[in-house]
Amino acid sequence: NPTEVQMSQLVLPCHTNHRGELSTGQLLKWIDTAACLSAERHAGCPCVTASMDDIYFEHTISVGQVVNIKAKVNRAFNSSMEVGIQVSYEDLCSGKHCSICKAYATFVAQDPSGGKQRLQPLAPQTEEEKIEHSIAAERRRMRLAHKDTLKDLLIRSSRETELETRDGSAAVPAEKTRVESVELVLPPHANHQGNTFGGQIMAWMENVATIAASRLCHAHPTLQAIEMFHFRGPSQVGDRLVLKAIVNNSFKNSMEVGVCAEAYGQEMSTSPRHINSAFMTFVVLDQEGRPRSLPMVAP
Fold first, then answer.
1. Rounded to whole angstroms, how far apart are CA atoms 104 and 139?
2. Beta-sheet pairing, 229-230 with 222-226
3. Are 122 and 10 in the same domain?
4. pLDDT for 142
5. Domain match, 92 and 197 both
6. From CA 254, how far away is CA 32, in angstroms rounded?
7. Model confidence pLDDT, tens digit, residues 177-203
8. What is the number of helices (H) and of strands (E) in the chain?
């Protein structure tokens, strides 16, 4: 497949968290880079990240292991294309290979003026490619309906929440988990057109979400899943990205953190541009790797 890109990265201490495990933000940056290279191979022009579907992380990756990422275009539509990504890790000492996650990203091709560029159709060759090509149209329909589904949930949801403590302890006010951070977009954070890398924005969002989760559990949480990232607009070098996160709810062994990114120009007095929103699920693991119970959240 001419669009296939393979990337291998050795996990070094600078890529890891306090447990010596690969930071999810760093992994998202690598995933986005590999997927973008695959998209640009097919488009023959610069591409930008439009969305990243739900991701479920099956395992963590330790320092010294190798991350193998394979990305290829599944289907091209008018100006957008779906890229399928497979992530696995390799232990160089034992030779063990293990799947980490699968992801599907949507990229939009841009012409020299910054507008959308029409794409050539992609002809699948293998049986696997034909299946992915066929299912890609249904996944695209689901992405387009995703925003309306969330709006419908907000309209229908009950405003009253019954709080039941699990262990007799008081619920933690959600406000105590709120995090706000500002990042200045510099040239290393952007592509050759000056647009911020989607993977960099996702990494910043994961960082503030992790801090919000930590404020609830007073421990170091593990990111288990990410609901779809949907980029609502671009940001450029010189923008100030304001990242906000808060724990929306906690369950017995997991919690959901809502996070959003807004962009301001050099004049912070102007209205912000909504760049992205996502929901992330965290767990807290004990020494045996089992999920711990979590306190309740009072909205």
1. 9
2. unpaired
3. yes
4. 85
5. no
6. 26
7. 999 999 999 999 998 888 899 999 999
8. 3, 14
